[in-house]
Amino acid sequence: MTAPNQPVKVTVTGAAGNIAYSLLWRIGAGEVFGPDTLVDLTLMDIPDNVQKVDGVAMELSDSALNKICNLHVTDDAQKAFDGTNAAFLVGAKPRGKGESRADMLEANGKIFIDQGRSINDHAADDVRVLVIGNPANTNTYIANKAAPDVGPEHFNALMRLDHNRTISMLSQKLDEHSSRFESIAVWGNHGDTMFPDIEYATVGGQPVKDRVERDWYVEEFIPRVAKRGSEIIEVRGRSSAASAASAAVDHMRDWVAGTEGKWVTSAVVSNGSYGVDEGLVFGLPVIGINGRWSVVEGLDLNEFQRERIDANIEALRAEAEIADKLF
Ligand code: NAD
Ligand code: LMR
User: Fold this and answer.
1) 95 labeled part of a ligand binding site
2) Which part of the chain is the Lactate/malate dehydrogenase N-terminal domain (predicted)?
3) Backbone phi, then psi, for 155, in 5-degree steps?
4) Are 215 and 285 part of one and the same domain?
5) Do 165 and 311 share a domain, yes or no?
6) CA of 23: how far to CAs of 29, 69, 244, 250, in Å?
């Protein structure tokens, strides 16, 4: 992404928060951009929390992580994205018990107008923007819309956590190691309608759908993956943080380095494939190749898959309508 031996410029927003407290250390340890790449890291948060970020920066510095070559703290969105090659947009309010992720749109959506504009004006040409703050897909839709000079392929929303949860739950059900699963995808929105799809999935080369009961898949598994975020909030008392950071690491690492032909899930700005409205940010099966995502195209969809995908299109259309009014 940058010239050899040049540090990669990375911005993390919400740097005083829970997710950042895990994510920053993984970036600093070289787990995202590789063992040979130095990182010039900018930590950004709102003015009220910038002193906390100073404390986080002190701790990062005390960790003597050998991939960090520079560390900056700012509460200024214009400065935060200056020359950035990779932006993790974490900064946003998490939902509490009983709230849906879509409920966060009113509170969080505007953040992504300002940040999208700043990315448009200041980021490097090769910038990769990964939106984590909820509702992640529609916040990405907003940021992309606010950055008309930056191509849509530069904007993703995090759905790798849903992908990882899917693999983990199948792994427990079938007593198979997570590394043996292939061709899994989570379609749609990082919201209640998300569709973890096992139609093409294999474990050790054998079809997963031959090894699970249809009732379990439809009635238990799909809703459990979709509601896992709420389950964590219920049990932990706060929304997922380390697992979200871990998924963000997986996502950005694979976006940069590729997936060697393996499918993963990324929410990307739709170009119309699978009947998804252009511009909506939709979870799709993708392969990482040459620093870009290539959507797995041409899959035959049965009626059940079509219905689930359509439910996500509807949900995202409704969110986009609200988002458009924020501009
Ligand atoms: P947190 O409350 O611990 O931290 C959020 C931080 O963002 C705070 O420090 C806050 O000051 C900061 N912030 C708020 N507005 C900002 C702005 N305009 N610019 C910069 N920073 C700003 O929350 P968290 O647990 O770190 O979660 C952050 C977001 O990530 C939430 O919206 C949460 O719902 C979402 N999340 C998404 C996924 C996913 O899979 N997509 C997973 C987990 C959490
Ligand atoms: C998650 O899936 O854990 C996050 O989106 C947090 C949430 O609100 O569920």
Assistant:
1) yes
2) 8-148
3) -115, 125
4) yes
5) yes
6) 10, 17, 9, 11
The parent domain of residue 139 ranges over 8-157
Q: Which helix (H) or strand (E) holds 245?
A: helix 242-257
Domain count within the chain: 2
Amino acid at 23: L
Does the C-beta of 137 come closer than 6 Å to ligand 2?
Answer: no
Q: Which of 157, 190, 211 is the last residue of a domain?
A: 157
**Dist. CA 239 → ligand 2 center (Å):** 6
Does residue 3 fall inside a structural domain? Answer: no
Please report, in tens digits, the pLDDT of each residue of the chain (327 residues total). 555 578 999 999 999 999 999 999 999 999 999 999 999 999 999 999 999 999 999 999 999 998 999 999 999 988 999 999 999 999 999 998 888 888 899 889 999 999 999 999 999 999 999 999 999 999 999 999 999 999 999 999 999 999 999 999 999 999 999 999 999 999 999 999 999 999 999 999 999 999 999 999 999 999 999 999 999 999 999 999 999 999 999 999 999 999 999 999 999 999 999 999 999 999 999 999 999 999 999 999 999 999 999 999 999 999 999 999 999
Separation of alpha carbons 239 and 158, rounded Å: 15
Protein residues with CB under 6 Å of any ligand 1 atom: 13-14, 16-19, 44-46, 49, 90-95, 111, 132-134, 136, 158, 161, 190, 239-241, 244
Tokens, residue 65: 């992580």
Determine whether the annotation assigns residue 49 to a binding site.
no
- Gap between the Cα atoms of 209 and 185, Å rounded: 14
* 72: annotated active-site residue: no
Residue 175 corresponds to which amino acid?
A: D
Q: How many other C-beta atoms lie within 10 A of the C-beta of residue 296?
A: 16
234 Cβ neighbours under 8 A, 6+ residues apart: 97
